[in-house]
Design goal:
With 374 residues, the protein is an alpha/beta fold. It folds into 3 domains: 112 residues, no CATH class; 101 residues, Transcription Regulator spoIIAA, CATH 3.30.750; 119 residues, no CATH class. Helices cover 36% and strands 13% of the residues. The strands form 4 sheets. Strands 2-1-3-4 form a 4-stranded parallel sheet. Strands 5-8-9 form a 3-stranded parallel sheet.
């Protein structure tokens, strides 16, 4: 995202395209850095709530994270507009200039917007990411090169910034967007810096369970962490190593652990459905929570309703921990008020009629029966 400007004071507009389209619970870190930099240079900066007044600003920066975020046609061609972010350029997104990339984020950028939303009846908790957290990357890069990931720009994990670069002592907590934190060889130094802030922190992207060692498990399990520890189990081909590393992790950590399960990317057929349940069985064994993440191609597939039902079961711990998948579908039917077979039970029955062996093997699995860490 190019940001060159002359030294004279100019009015600057900031547009978070994701926020204006569908809304988002996360502030845009790049825009906060741009805002912080130009405010320090004496330029008045405003978060714009629409595209209507773009022409009244000397410079407007627009960023979007998601490719499906809608932006008015032709807006990017305006002479005073600069666009950036993975929603525009994917893994080829341009880096911010160094002095902006390493500037303290402007944590006040969204204040007026959030205040208005709360005054209009929205719950403060919905905007906690805007209000309560210091946000940043301590490392960047990943060597995995997963085909579905936008973070394929670099071939290694490297130190990006010290914690002090984005830590605001007025904020209660810290969250981090590191791509593959444990791929950095001096991870323990960074953890020590995070501990020194005396703030609870969390890695939002999901840590690489395949890189867990005894030392990492011991240190991470003892820090002031908030929420679930989050890892990823995206490929059933990693079953053996994930199982081995979960053995290590669970030996030292007794707290809640969640793993992202990616699905519907290479196919949306019975093989992909079965691979979800194979991974779920492993997580049940190790007393872990799943969070199913569906690639967009699941929409319009033959098993779209089934994917949705599985996600509703897995992503709600109160159901996943107490019910098998079959019991969850039957529960939905019990509470259905239409008098017809509900979509959950219908999708399960349809799949079971075509693939009874898969259903018989997995639809009755229960967390409380398989969990070895009760």
């Amino acid at each position: 995202m190019g940001v060159d400007m002359k030294n004279e004071t100019k009015k600057i507009g900031i547009i978070d395209a994701d926020l204006l389209d569908k809304g988002t619970r996360h502030p845009n870190l790049a825009l906060m850095k741009i805002s912080g930099y130009y405010k320090d240079k004496g330029h008045p900066v405003e978060l714009l709530k629409s595209y209507d007044r773009i022409d009244t600003y000397e410079k407007v920066f627009i960023s979007r994270v998601f490719t499906n975020t809608n932006v008015p046609i032709g807006i990017e061609e305006k002479n005073n507009v600069t666009v950036g972010g993975t929603g525009y350029f994917g893994e080829e997104a341009e880096d911010l200039p160094n002095d902006i990339e390493h500037h303290m984020p402007d944590y006040n950028l969204y204040n007026d917007y959030v205040r208005e939303q709360i005054e209009n009846g929205k719950k403060r908790s919905y905007y906690k990411d805007y209000l309560d957290y210091s946000i940043g990357f301590t490392t960047r890069g990943c060597f995995r090169k997963c085909p579905f990931c936008v973070n394929r720009k670099y071939n290694e994990v490297f130190l990006h910034s010290p914690v002090s670069e984005f830590f605001d002592p007025k904020k209660k907590k810290i969250y981090l967007w590191d791509d593959n934190f444990f791929g950095y060889d001096k991870w323990n130094d960074i953890l020590n810096d995070l501990v020194a802030t005396d703030r609870p922190f969390q890695f939002r992207q999901g840590l690489d369970i395949r890189l867990i060692t005894k030392d990492k498990a011991i240190m991470l399990s003892k820090v002031k962490y908030f929420g679930d520890f989050i890892f990823a189990f995206d490929n059933v081909a990693d079953l053996k190593i994930v199982s081995k590393k979960l053995e290590v992790w669970k030996k030292y950590c007794k707290r809640s652990t969640k793993l992202y399960l990616f699905c519907a990317y290479t196919s949306q057929d019975e093989k992909d459905i079965e691979e979800i349940f194979i991974r779920v069985k492993v997580l049940m064994k190790y007393g872990c929570l799943p969070y199913l993440m569906r690639y967009q191609d699941y929409k319009g597939s033959k098993w779209e309703k089934l994917y949705t039902t599985i996600a509703r079961w897995l992503n709600q711990p109160q159901f996943y921990k107490k019910m098998s998948f079959r019991e969850f579908c039957k529960r939905n039917q019990y509470y259905s008020k239409t008098g017809r077979i509900c979509s959950s039970l219908r999708s399960m029955n349809s799949f079971e009629s075509e693939f009874p062996k898969i259903a018989r093997k997995y639809f009755d699995l229960k967390y409380e029966n398989l969990n070895q860490y009760k």
